[in-house]
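Posting this for the archive.
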Amino acid sequence: MEFHPSNLKAFDDLFARFHERIQSMPGCLQVCLLEGHRDESVRTTLSWWEEEAHLEAYRRSELFGEVWPKTKVMFSTPPVAWSVEWPEDEPFSIAAK
């Protein structure tokens, strides 16, 4: 996600405020926020879900309805999202909730 520079602190604060609630959603294993390497205005949320159905349920939840409208008004470009399969033979460590 790319944000207007004037909105970076507001987004970081928004993520911090909702992080635990998102991570507590059924089926959510972990959510983290990554900052852009060479571009301060870039943020990426990385999340692990037990099943795609859990992610879809989050996207239909009241919580998402509260978070998403506040987030999308801060973008400087349209966001990009995708899902990937984690390789079964690749170790994955879940941070303590």
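Residues 5-72 form a domain with the Alpha-Beta Plaits fold (CATH 3.30.70.100). The first strand starts at residue 28 and ends at 35.
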